[in-house]
Design brief:
Helix 1 packs parallel to helix 3. A hairpin with a 2-residue loop joins strand 6 and strand 7. By secondary structure, the protein is an alpha+beta fold. It contains 16 helices and eight strands. The chain has a six-stranded mixed sheet. Strands 1-2 form a two-stranded antiparallel sheet.
Length: about 350
């Protein structure tokens, strides 16, 4: 599943910031590494790239010390208002079934990073949630939980307080302090799939807020918005953004990016050539800038920075950094720590020889 081909509303990031505030996590800490300015998130025309939202989610996990069922708890706070035009369209749909169909058509206007499949099972409906395999295990669990919680919240908001679940199943094991019930259903861990089950009758009832004109207008505007957000940026910009917001166990490879984008390495290389770029140059430039920023920040040791950038050992990182910048990482850190405007002390050259007086004339 490719989740990188569209931009997103900043509403999701703002909701994670709000959740972090409740856990005494500062917004600046949550946005670190995402290249997202806090002030611009309030701009309704501002868009967030998927890689940037991933960086915020990773920070939230780390800063809350992987709180139990974190994704589920965050997802349950995603009310209809978080979805903008799509939310109004869901609310004005004729029935719950029509609302679900609308959501399936415009899933790209949500904030999901998981595969979602809806099917009928006798008198019930089952919605399953499949994690994106390209994401780390902790983020897979977070986004599955978030999608499940958000789906439950939207269904309750659309259908009303009568909506409840028959079952809430998670494939992962239980964690101490996790949620025990969601919308009346006991949370069951270690199941075959991540899924929610509810009676189909909930979807058949007419919705009290139904308005055919509003629903049609919202869908038309959703279609226009989707076209704008699916416009692909140039490949160089995408790679710069992606590489700048991810940690790697080893140096990034073009073949791994091609797999992520569901394309061939040859096709990706050709696209870069058309833009006059080379993957190795892009990767080195991004890693150099990231290394310099992390060294100047002073939060991580040089060894930790090497690991963050995918180097197998400190020596390899030091050699690459010196090749990129002309100085060793330790020297760069000393220069960054020097007070602004401080003059560099000249090297010692020893005592000058004492001048002897010449003969008097």
């Amino acid at each position: 599943m490719n989740v990188w081909n569209f931009a997103r509303s900043p509403a999701s990031v703002l909701l994670m910031i709000e959740y972090g505030r409740g856990r005494n996590v500062a917004p600046s800490a949550l946005l670190r590494g995402s290249q997202l300015p806090l002030k611009q998130l309030a701009d309704p025309d501002f868009t967030v790239q998927a890689a940037q939202e991933l960086a915020v989610a990773a920070n939230l996990l780390r800063l809350t010390r992987h709180e139990a069922d974190l994704g589920l708890k965050v997802g349950l706070s995603y009310h209809l208002s978080a979805y903008g035009l799509l939310g109004y369209g869901l609310l004005s749909s004729a029935t719950g079934e029509a609302a679900v169909a609308l959501a399936r058509r415009y899933l790209a206007l949500t904030y999901t990073y998981v595969g979602i499949v809806h099917r009928r099972a006798g008198p019930c409906d089952v919605v399953t949630f499949e994690p994106a395999p390209e994401l780390p295990a902790d983020l897979q669990r977070f986004f599955v939980g978030r999608a499940m919680g958000a789906t439950c919240r939207v269904l309750r908001d659309v259908i009303g307080s009568a909506f409840g679940l028959v079952a809430f199943d998670l494939a992962c094991d239980a964690e101490p302090g996790g949620k025990s019930h969601v919308l009346g259903a006991r949370v069951r861990h270690g199941q075959r799939a991540n899924a929610i089950t509810f009676e189909h009758a909930h979807l058949e009832r007419p919705l009290p807020q139904a308005n055919a004109v509003t629903a049609a207008m919202c869908e038309r505007m959703c279609a226009e918005l989707l076209v704008r957000r699916r416009t692909r940026p140039d490949m160089v910009s995408f790679l710069q953004e992606y590489l700048a917001t991810h940690a790697f166990d080893s140096p990034p490879q073009l073949k791994d990016i091609a797999t992520l984008l569901n394309t061939s390495e040859r096709t990706l290389k050709r696209r870069l050539q058309e833009e006059g770029a080379c993957f190795r140059d892009i990767s080195n430039a991004v890693r150099r800038a990231r290394a310099q920023a992390l060294i100047a920040e002073g939060r991580l040791s040089v060894k930790e920075i090497a690991h963050e950038l995918g180097f197998s050992d400190l020596s390899s990182f030091s050699q690459a950094f010196k090749r990129w910048t002309g100085v060793a990482p330790s020297v760069s850190r000393q220069q960054a720590a020097r007070p602004s405007g401080a003059a560099e002390r000249p090297p010692s050259v020893g005592k000058r020889p004492r001048r002897t007086a010449g003969p008097r004339s």
